[in-house]
Design brief:
CATH architecture of the largest domain: Alpha-Beta Barrel
Strand content: 5-15%
Shape: globular
Largest sheet: 9 strands, mixed
Number of strands: 17
CATH topology of the largest domain: TIM Barrel
Bound molecules: phosphoenolpyruvate, magnesium ion
Radius of gyration: 26 Å
Distance between the termini: 22 Å
Structural class: alpha/beta
Amino acid sequence: MALGTEIEKIYWGIPAAPGVAFGTIFLDVEDDLYVPNYAIEEGAVEGEISRFDQALLKTWQEISQIRQQVADWLGEEEAQIFDAHLVVLEDPALIDETIEEVENSRRNVEHAFLTISQKYIAAFQKIDDEFIKERLNDIKDVSRRILHNLTGEAPGSLGTIQERRIVVAHDLTPSKAAAVPHRYLQGFVTEAGSQTSHVVIMAKAAGVPAVVGVHGLLKTLQNGDEVILDGFEGVLIVHPRKETLFRYGEEKKLREVREQEFLKLSRGPAVTRDGHQIEVMANIEGNNEIPRVRETGAEGIGLYRTEYLFLKGGSFPTEEEQFVAYKEAVEALNPAPVILRTYDLGGDKVLQRRDLLDPEDNPFLGCRAIRFSLLYPEIFKDQLSAMLRASAYGNLRIMFPMVSGIEELEIANRLLRVVKGKLTASQVEFDPEVKVGIMIEVPSAAHICDHLADHCDFFSIGTNDLMQYLLAVDRGNENVAHLYEPGHPALLRVLRQVVEQCMRINHPVSICGEMAGDPVFLALLIGLGLRSVSVSPNSVPSIKYLIRQLSVGESKALAADALKMTDPVRIQKMMREFSNARLEGPEVLYEGARLRRELGGGRDGVLE
Ligand code: PEP
Ligand code: MG
């Protein structure tokens, strides 16, 4: 990377996909498409409609080709994002109204299509709803492509990238992101977007870093600016100084060497220095992650977020489709356990089936997860039936998300019994003893976990939600992100309470929130009594390594000290120092964290 004389500038956003990239940016500036507008003769109407048909067909072929490329590159599940685009292409409202517009206005079809598509875009823009926003992007994306095909002008510039680049954009639709030749893609930075946007899911699957929610980039950056993109800390450093580059370079080398070592050592059980075995499982969102799970030495799947089967496809998979997916997973992992969580839809996991749920004022407190499943027992029973059938092929367990009280769990169990009865009557094989667990992620469930334990076989603590509900901090809101603190004393107390109750009644408990995969908090969790964690597949090797450096004795002492403290920042600092000392060496990718501290909690700036 050539070093210029410009001043180093630091931009903060939301860390969305992990990794660090050094490189040159490619600015995705919206191209100004010229759309002609002219009158046509009555006899020319047929010809315009035929041009429209051809443009639709060409667009369909292009999107299908992109879909295929993405399927080859990232897998079938990622590719299903483009099914939503194909649906837009077949939308009768858009197509019929365009034809009517040509017939009535007697203007050329580009103009007619622009008029109709803008009418829909304007109507959608007025609606403040996450689902509509996603659909709006689909419509914009497809409409643009159709207009390009009608006018014959080449579509966006991302497909022209010929060298390795970090793509900076206001927002990226999946098809735009997929247009970047993937061997040249080093990472994404967007002004808009959230951690759950499609482009982030694609970045993670492609293994490139991504940072979203970085304000004001397009106004200030130039094509060709040199940057460091830190997807761990959510930072973009423009015109990095020699020292910054050097530090990042050193840390990157260290991380790579260390990760290779962790991976080599990752097979076999993770046993602490004083002989306690800690189970390390993996969290996944689709079967495409199974090879990675096996490679990293995870001892099973502790959380399979099955809602992604729905979120990526746009409609509910049939019972048969689910059965095939679940069976493949349990067979691949057998005899290791696979914990399938029933749909956790609602909240930030926006439902694409609008007919099922009206927009809610507080979706995180609304009809989410088990509440949604109980509202739609037929959808729930399909899923349970697919899971039960797959249980005949391996070590499958079922888990219900977001349980807040006994009644919900009892109803869910009752529905499970009904499905079991049906399968038995039809002589379909399943494991009659299949274990059923619940997530502990609502404070009420944490408080009554001893009662809930009477109705299920195991717990998995979901700290991502437990934290947001306990601390009243929306987990996706960047304005309150500083309050979303895993070191908060209230969270530590609740964790201790749940684990102690479970020990007392001998009820299995694991933890699958992001906190479990953060080396900073591992010793604390072990010290609190947890003996099973489930983390992202990429974190399995480092977590196993760290477990082997710890002793339960010292972890207990650490947890006891932490429980006496009141300041989350100091608690976190103590944990960090403890884990750094055991990971031997400086904190990996410390630079972004240092910058964050020195600039004061993540404000954009220039470091003197
Ligand atoms: C959690 O809440 O901690 C959890 C693992 O579930 P999700 O992140 O899918 O809500
Ligand atoms: Mg959760």
